[in-house]
Amino acid sequence: MGLNLNKLKRTIAILVIPVVIIIAGLTGCSVSYSFSGASTTGLSTVSIQYFQNRAPLVQPGLSQFITDALMDKIKSQTSLKTVNGIGDANFEGEISDYNTRPRTVAADAEAAMNRFTISVKVKFTNAVDPELSFEQTFSRYEDYNSNLDLSQVEKELSDKIIEMIVEDIFNQAFVNW
């Protein structure tokens, strides 16, 4: 009986000690992890200035949509506090292009596919680590059948393009792989 009791005590010790170590480790320190891979080390605030539409073809509401989409992305993927004025991280820019052009030509010399493009010029300033600051134009496109009028596909395509552009801007600013 004495051997079984010692064996039971050792088994309990083997099971309890790692649990105690894990609990002590979890309560004694914290680890910051982001599913997006975003790194905001040293930053506590972010500001996003209104993106003016300076494209030759102006689509009403696009400026607000891009500004809001970038703000939503940052709010959902980081713990940065959004401020008016200038934050530790600051985004400003403009919509520099919004167009549709023929992409491919069919046998009858008519366009078979059109390419819808949106470009956004961004200036990102990181006040904590200026080396991470950048000024860059982000451009994405979607092709659509030329049998369709742009107005038929514009909303769907612009939503997709803006989502990709916002992802590119976010990655350039905060995902330093």
Task: Give a verbal description of the structure.
By secondary structure, the protein is α/β, with parallel strands linked by helices. It folds into 2 domains: 31 residues; 133 residues, Lipoprotein like domain (Double Stranded RNA Binding Domain), CATH 3.30.160. Strands 1, 2, 3, 4, 5 and 6 form a 6-stranded mixed beta sheet that branches. α2 packs parallel to α3.
Give a nutshell description of this structure.
The chain is α/β, with parallel strands linked by helices.
Q: Number of DSSP strands? A: 6
Secondary-structure element sequence? Answer: HEEHEEEEH
Main structural class? alpha/beta
Oligomer: single chain
Which key features would you list for this structure?
about 180 residues; alpha/beta; Double Stranded RNA Binding Domain; 2 domains; six-stranded mixed beta sheet; 3 helices; 6 strands
Break the fold down into its secondary structure elements and pairings:
Elements: H1 2-28, E1 45-48, E2 52-53, H2 62-77, E3 81-82, E4 89-105, E5 111-126, E6 134-145, H3 150-174
Parallel strand pairs: 1-3, 1-4, 2-4
Antiparallel strand pairs: 4-5, 5-6
